[in-house]
């Protein structure tokens, strides 16, 4: 009888243990996921000068596709986004220095950046597209037509636009313009002939400036993908961000945000 009672007691204890709710295991201690969950703050590095992805319209206030998406990511992490202003030239150094947990704002996937950071899964295909005064659209249909000594190309420093201009448009007369917000004024005033940027920006700026036209944005000059920068070696955080982005795309949330900023 004592043996039977002992076995019964063990069975009851095992059943109770099996039915008891188990706490979710904590995120890996060395991951940004754990740091964000503990602090309640998602630090986001962004240049904030790239419509429609991220644009600083007032000190500390940003808007755009990536800003809306970072808000949904922060919500999924039970945190609030904190935007850390950077520049395209300093984006990677600031990120590698640990100033933020993620970088966003229209970042093109590149092998050079991949050497120092992880990328999330891509969320947009967005190739290089010429932006020019509308009367010049027929002139700048191809890379070969733009890459001429008589063509005045303008570019902003520190990102893929500069790399494209210097590698693919090396015969054109190149001017580096440090302010991405006023580069479009240079085209309007006739100080430059063409600016090659991502299709999404070319479309948005052509809507904002009727004098400017995006040249064949549906057939870009060079294939490109947009993604988010993540800490190199942090597989836990990358898996979380990738899954969040996958679910945002599958649920239609991403499509709603994209339509809000780019239209149908």
Multimerization status: single chain
CA-to-CA gap between the ends?
Answer: 76 Å
N to C succession of SSEs:
HHEEEEHEHEHEEEHEHEHEHEEEHH
Major β-sheet annotation: 5 strands, mixed
Approximately how much helix is present in the residues? 25-40%
Determine the number of helices (DSSP H or I, runs of at least 4 residues): 11
DSSP E strands, number = 15
Taken from the alpha-carbon principal axes, the silhouette is: elongated
Q: What is the spatial order of strands in the main beta sheet?
A: 11-10-12-9-13
Content of β-strand:
15-25%
Overall radius of gyration: 24 Å
Name the poorly predicted regions: 1-25
What structural category do the secondary elements indicate?
A: alpha/beta
Mean pLDDT: 89
Q: What is the strand and helix layout of this fold?
A:
Blueprint: H1 2-19, H2 32-39, E1 41-46, E2 49-50, E3 54-58, E4 61-63, H3 65-76, E5 80-85, H4 91-96, E6 102-103, H5 111-114, E7 118-119, E8 124-125, E9 128-133, H6 143-146, E10 152-155, H7 160-168, E11 173-176, H8 183-188, E12 194-198, H9 199-208, E13 212-214, E14 225-226, E15 229-230, H10 235-251, H11 253-262
Parallel strand pairs: 1-5, 1-6, 10-11, 10-12
Antiparallel strand pairs: 2-3, 3-4, 7-15, 8-14, 9-12, 9-13
Summarize the structure.
This protein has 264 residues and is of the alpha/beta class.
């Amino acid at each position: 009888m004592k043996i039977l009672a002992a076995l019964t007691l063990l069975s009851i204890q095992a059943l109770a243990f099996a039915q008891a709710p188990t706490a979710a295991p904590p995120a890996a201690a060395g991951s940004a996921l754990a740091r964000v969950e503990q602090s309640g703050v998602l630090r986001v590095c962004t240049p904030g000068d790239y419509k429609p992805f991220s644009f600083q319209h007032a000190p500390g206030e940003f808007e755009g596709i990536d800003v809306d998406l970072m808000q949904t990511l922060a919500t999924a992490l039970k945190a609030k986004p904190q935007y850390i202003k950077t520049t395209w030239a300093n984006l990677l150094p600031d990120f590698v220095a640990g100033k933020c947990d993620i970088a966003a704002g229209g970042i093109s996937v590149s092998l050079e950046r991949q050497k120092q950071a992880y990328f999330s899964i891509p969320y947009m295909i967005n190739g290089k597209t010429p932006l020019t005064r509308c009367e010049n659209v027929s002139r700048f249909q191809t890379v070969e037509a733009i890459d001429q000594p008589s063509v005045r190309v303008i570019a902003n420093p520190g990102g893929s636009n500069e790399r494209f201009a210097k590698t693919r448009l090396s015969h054109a007369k190149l001017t580096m313009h440090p302010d991405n917000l006023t580069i479009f004024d240079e085209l309007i005033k006739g100080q430059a002939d063409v600016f090659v940027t991502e299709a999404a920006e070319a479309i948005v700026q052509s809507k904002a400036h009727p004098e400017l036209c995006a040249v064949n944005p549906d057939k870009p000059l060079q294939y490109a993908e947009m993604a988010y920068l993540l800490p190199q070696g942090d597989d836990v955080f990358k898996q979380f961000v990738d899954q969040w982005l996958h679910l945002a795309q599958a649920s239609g949330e991403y499509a709603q945000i994209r339509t809000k900023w780019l239209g149908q």
